[in-house]
Amino acid sequence: MTDARQFLGMKELGDPLHWRLHVVPELTTPGNFLFGGCGLGAALVALEAASGRPAVWSTAQYLSFAPTDSVLDLTVTLAAEGKRVTQARAVGRVGDTEILTVNAALGLPGDTGAEGVWDSPPDVPPPLECPPRRLPAFFTTSIFDQIDVRLAKGRSFEEISSGPHTPGEPTSALWARVPGHLEPSAATLAILGDYVTGGVSQPLGRRTFSRSLDNTLRVVRLEPTEWVLCDIRIQALADGYGQGTAFLWSETGNLLATASQSMSIRFAPPLP
């Protein structure tokens, strides 16, 4: 069984404040640069190790691209350390170029004597009763090869690509798992939460290219689950920018986290 640190190939450089990630093809988009969720996930591995506390909230701002075969160096700053909560940031660079900045709050559990989740997962079939999500050959040798995804709700890639391009629902859902990774961490959920960008095609009925401008993860409570249900809800698209949220549910229907993004959107050209 692997964990997020092993999946990402993270290496500590002498102390918990300095880390390195090699941008191998298996962590990249089909555009040959680091998948945004992997960047946030790597920063969370570093931030949790440096603070000794689990992540409660984190947000990444993507500033530039880390191309395939480059080296991303992450430096952690523990800006404020309280009795229960640490406020920290991680900055990732390739050479002298800043690629992403992640701010986070990491905190020890508390007990208020009251709790609740006032939302519910969509009514979808279990993972093994859902069809695998199939992608064209040019998506191979990328992060999409490493994650097992099944379409629980919404239109398939083929349906959106072949048309007719009719508007659809703003909600969709995917079951996703990293094979051999049974205990999701904040870093794992950051990777899966980046599937929000693909949800923009659903209401538009057309294939899109989406570039994440930010990626925010809010952790509710982690529990062992082989599959995570990515319940994607696209809120808006205006002036070429979209906003969406994924509610991340366990197989037992418990809310693990929410992930939200702002995206720069453009239509993809027709497939050959």
What does this entry look like structurally?
This protein has 272 residues and is mostly beta strands. It has a single domain, classed as Porin, CATH 2.40.160. 14% of the residues lie in helices and 38% in strands. It contains 5 helices and 13 strands. The protein has helices at residues 4-8, 36-51, 157-162, 186-193, 201-204; strands spanning 11-12, 18-22, 55-62, 71-81, 85-94, 97-107, 148-153, 171-177, 208-212, 214-219, 228-238, 241-249, 255-267. Strands 1, 2, 3, 4, 5, 6, 7, 8, 9, 10, 11, 12 and 13 form a 13-stranded antiparallel beta sheet that branches. A hairpin with a 5-residue loop joins strand 1 and strand 2. The longest helix is centred in the N-terminal third of the chain and has 16 residues, at 36-51. The chain is globular.
